[in-house]
Design goal:
This protein is 80% helix and 0% strand. It has seven helices and no strands. The chain starts with 11 loop residues before the first helix and ends with a helix.
């Protein structure tokens, strides 16, 4: 890390620039590139300097809320993909994919049916043997 390079990014105007980049949807990697540092350095600065971290969070929150609102609007307007996405993420207890659970249940049901058939065959065989004796 270049000594003191972070200091310029703690100035109000540069914190606003970071916030704006985040609000514009840039990734941390893109923001780091704009700053002239590596993504790893940005990650370290976010941990070390709360002002940098807060500026990025503040910018990302704005766009995240906009996307959330757009997703909700789209879902309410009948976009079934948006509805599914919303429900799976907001109510995973009720709407998560249950394919694995259903596949396991189906396999167990098939096994139970096979075992029932074997039992029935065994009972018939015992009855047939008892009748012929």
């Amino acid at each position: 890390m270049a000594k003191g390079k972070y200091e310029k990014w703690l100035k109000k105007e540069n914190l606003l620039l970071l916030e704006g980049w985040a609000r514009d949807g840039l990734t941390d990697e893109q923001i780091a590139k704009n700053m002239g540092i590596t993504a790893k350095t940005l990650w370290e600065w976010k941990k070390r300097y709360g002002n940098i971290c807060n500026a990025l969070k503040k910018g990302k929150e704005v766009v995240d809320y906009q996307v959330e609102n757009a997703l909700l609007s789209s879902a309410l307007d009948g976009n079934t993909t948006a509805q599914i996405f919303w429900l799976k993420n907001r109510r995973p207890d009720k709407w998560r994919d249950k394919q694995k659970d259903e596949a396991d249940t189906t396999a167990l049901e098939k096994l139970d049916n096979i075992l029932d058939e074997i039992r029935e065959d065994a009972k018939r065989s015992v009855k047939d043997n008892a009748v012929h004796e």
